[in-house]
Amino acid sequence: MRSRLFPLAGALLAAFPVVSVCAADERPVVVTATRTALGADEVLAPTVVITRAEIERQQGMDVADLLRFHAGFDIGRNGGPGQATSLFLRGTDSNHALVMIDGVRINPGTIGGAALQNLHPELIERIEIVKGPRSSLYGSDAIGGVINIITRRAAQGTEADVSAAGGSFGTTRFTAGARHASDGGARFGVEASSYRTDGFPPSTSSDVDRGHDNLGVNAHVGKRFSLFDIELSHFQASGNTEYLDFFLDPLDQDFLNSVTALRLEAMPAASWMTRLRLSQAKDEIDQNQSEDYAHTDRRTVDWQNDVQIGRAQLLTAGVELSREETASASFGTVFDEERDIGAVYLQDAIEYGAHRGVLAARYTDYDGFGEQLTWGVEYGYWLTAATRLTASAGTAFRAPDQTDRFGFGGDPNLEPEEARNVELGLLHRFSSAQRLTLQLFQNDIDQLIEFDFDAGGMINVAEARIRGAELGYEYAAGPWHFGAEASVQDPVSRATGNQLPRRAKRSVTASLAYAAERWQLGADVLATSNRRDSDFSDVVLPGYGLANLTAALSLGRDWTLRARVENVFDKEYELAAGFRTAERSYLLQLGWRYGGERGGS
Amino acid sequence: MIRAGLPPFFASSLLLHAAVFVAWPAGETQPLAQPATLQLTLQTVEGKTWPDMTAYARAALVSSENSSAPESAPAWAEADSPIPTATASETAGADKAASDAREASLDTNSLQAATDSDMAATTAVATAATAVKDSMSGAVMSNGSASSSSEFDAETVGSMHSAATPDAPARAEESGAVLATVRPALSLAFSPDQLIQRLHDAAATYFYYPPLARRHGWEGEVRLALHVAHDGRLSDIRVLSSSGHRVLDRAAIDCLTRVARLPDATGVPPSGMETVLPVVYRLIDTPV
């Protein structure tokens, strides 16, 4: 239908200036709205969005490097590039953040959180983070929040870019990409990024450098037909990471993280959008000095429908079926398991005058441990045109991973970890250029799975309560952009009363950027208070501050020179006891770009 | 390892797919006959009503871009278009004729402002008698020719707009009148800017971002055409060019339909006027 109408509309359009009065002065009515994160209606939940412009400006090493400059995102890292990295979002555990690539879950089914250290920013268009429980839409792991990494896609026209970078620790990075989208709805894009570094010694008691090689590839091809839109995409990061084992012996491992998806979208009616997605996500680690490995292969069919009812209601209903194959060999414990996960979910987002409401529920069935019902209720009220109050409550869960169930000391009968979160929020816009946000939350997590020495295995034993307050301020006007965030939280184990490991009680971040026509300068700083290193020791990691500087200079029309100085003040700090972090280091990049946005900004 | 072979495999496979997809023909192609008919219609109206050669040339250009028909266009026009007659002015009410004449004389006052092409038109309506005769003939002729245009409209664009379908002939009469009278009004007296501003003011409270489009990040510009009657009533709201998303197109029409009537319609000619309102739906990245 559409393709038949388009040329017609074009003909009308071309003909109308003849009869129309106002053809010469067509001032448009501009209707704007804030882009919602995650493609679902998280209008009311606190969100963080890292845009492509911000990614290019910051020149971060990996996704974790970008996330850490937001308060409430605590990072644990066993050394430099590629080394095991964990994210503690809002004081929750490292496996309590659901990470997706283009909407496809990449958390491993074997053990731990998503491999953020392997995801390099060059292939990424934007990162959207929604804080708080989202299990009512996304299922397991979404206790502290959801991170959706959106990879690059073709915009209208043709774009190409190439860059070469080099810097401290023998780091080189080459990227190349080309994207094209035609008027007819056909599009494709390919990007590749090669990152190599000699790294530095991960351990404070070793002088052996440990390097990291990472080849990233992102490709997509799609076409819009008159009745539907189809897209095939593939993202992968693969390479090798050298590390030191517990005895400081140099070892290395190969890794692969990939997402392949076939997506079909159609509009059966003007206000009904339906999407069918077949996806496969892989997370693989293979040790090169031993037979150990950890593999996850998850295939998912996801059918989601968004139906707009009237002008104020958006109903979302979906079905998700996954088959997760996990295989692991770790220090003599071997398992090879398969489990099926089925889920149905329903969400209704309502706008009524100054009121906003979101109701969501999801029923998830694991063939392993049974079923889980999660729900979420959010309410927002625009007090004035500039001030909004929100209140929300929701539940979330984490299904025991296969290492919990079949690994060392595992118990197949473990129950899922369960969380209940309540939250109050305030949003205030001082002007079109300034925004203030305040969130207060309490997240209670029960049945946390831990290794119990008395029981000699994994049990649902621990309980945690995290109370926190987050304050955010953002200013954007003309060439200036300033953002500041502060987080105060009390992540405690209710059993022991101890502060949860590697989570800070206080953190502050700020970024300041100035973009002139030909050049750009930016600074990112963070400060965080002390953290306990682990439940099994009394080691406390002292608080630290970190500052990065970035600069960009446009060299003519197509060329841009970028520079980054990390850890400007050469501060020594630890993100995990006994592991080094980067000293003052540099990165210089020369980039060429054809089409799309040009220049240093 | 096998994995080392994966990136090149995927890259080459996707490139191959890309080539196939891009080379694939784009959906259904639209039949040429219909747009050609439309072009002819407009051409006829323009060519005969007002001796505006620029407009004629433009219409011809458009039709030559879209079909192989332009050659036959003048012939069709000659054969079909009624020549202004006394019958035409008789059918019109005396009031209307008078008001048209008033307007025409008003128009001559601000002749200086008229552009070259408009000047011919204004000169043509310089005397009241000629003006009445001309505008009526325009109306008559448009009735004849625009009916085919509106049938066409109803058939193809009809599914998209709410107000159009019911009575095609009636609408044709209306738009025919517009075609005839808009030109003198446009060149003079009433500023289109004012009308647009009033539309903006009226629309401000009604426009919204459809939640479905917002969720999926859909943006775009939909251009609406509409008729503003003498009393400010809006009618004949239709999509000139789609935003590419039906939900945005529909929302734009819905909002303008809700506006219903401009509170202030002073300056709108008695027969109303045709205007275009572009509506841009844009999502803001940084929620500042």
Structural description of this entry:
The complex is a heterodimer of chains A (601) and B (288). By secondary structure, chain A is mainly β. Helices cover 6% and strands 60% of the residues of chain A. Chain A has a 22-stranded antiparallel β-barrel. Chain A has a five-stranded mixed β-sheet with strand order 2-7-8-5-6. A two-stranded antiparallel sheet of chain A has the order 3-4. The radius of gyration of chain A is 24 Å and the shape is globular. The N terminus of chain A is likely disordered. Chain B has 288 residues and is mainly alpha-helical. Helix content of chain B is 59%, strand content 10%. Chain B has twelve helices and three strands. A three-stranded antiparallel β-sheet of chain B has the order 2-1-3. In chain B, α2 runs antiparallel to α3 and α6 crosses α8. Classes of the chains: A mainly beta (601), B mainly alpha (288). Chains A and B meet through α1, β1, β11, β12 and β13 of A and α1, α2, α3, α9 and α10 of B.
- Major sheet details of chain B: 3 strands, antiparallel
Per the principal axes of the C-alpha atoms, what is the gross shape of chain A? globular
The biggest beta sheet of chain A is recorded as:
22 strands, antiparallel, barrel
How would the global form of chain B be characterised? elongated
Largest interface: A-B, 88 and 89 residues
Q: Got a strand count of chain B?
A: 3
Poorly predicted parts of chain A: 1-24
